[in-house]
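Because showing beats explaining, we think one record worth quoting, sequence and backbone structure tokens together, and here it is:
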Amino acid sequence: KHSMTSKPKKIPKMSQEQEEWVEAAFKSFNREDIKKMIHILHDISPKISNVDFEEEILEKLNIMRELLDVPDAAASFCKSSGMLEIYDHALNPKVSNAIRTNCFSIISACAQNNTFVQKFFSRLNINQILLSAIDAEEKLKLRAITALSAILKGNNINNKRIFLAKGGLTDLLKMLRIKNSEQIDARLFNILQDILEHAIFLNLDITHIEFDTDPNKLKPKKEFSNFPDILKSQMKEIQLITAQHTHHAFRTLPDLKTQPYRLGVLHTLKSFDQVCHQWKLEKDQKLWKDSKLTVLGMRKKIETQGECEVLAIEDDLAAEILKLK
């Protein structure tokens, strides 16, 4: 037994032989997992459109999802072309909604904060994900948009450029004009806010942002010069749609279930103002004033709820927006 003051034992450093064994064992384990996943794909692909096999296919996709939780498995799965097959199944209208939903869930889990997987998807027409979701039923639509968000969001600037170049922002705004659930609108606003937040990088000589990346130290790149123009051309529409959703989001007393939607709208308002400031763009002042009045009304509603730590998050964000001009 050790006393409270005794020094902890040092863990002995592995020998080179031990390190090599661990690395080989990990690679072997990873290779075996990939073989299992490819075997699953070979088994389910001929049956993918046959409803009689839906239950079996869903069960095997769940097994695949578990195998993909292993570190680096998603990257290896992409290299083996397995992810391409999952992507094709997710977009195939002949495949059942349940299977497509499951495929989009796999894509989402693999792409989330995974630079390699996000780069893999930069070679595909990722805008098809959004188009496939427009008329889909609720659960499939939600999973498709969540998968697109995982591919687009974060530090990967190149995927945002591809999305803009292929008309993705236009399609996104179209979806925000139609009636969706708060869950779906929350995901859509997360994508929109992320594009606005990273707008300053769109024309700079960079494809991926690091933690300490300073846009002021980067030079514009000629081949990227049109991307800010694509976004600028949609700024009036972005303000109008965000203003409409501001009124919709705060029409009733705030509740925790719809909070992600309200936070998405608030973050988008803040990032919209940031882009206007960075690029010296004029806002529609009437719309901006109306949005701020709605946010002010929301703060008063939050006050009636009493102290609530979770609602305080959006109250603080609302206070920031009310300070913007």
Observations:
- The CA atoms of residues 18 and 24 lie 10 Å apart.
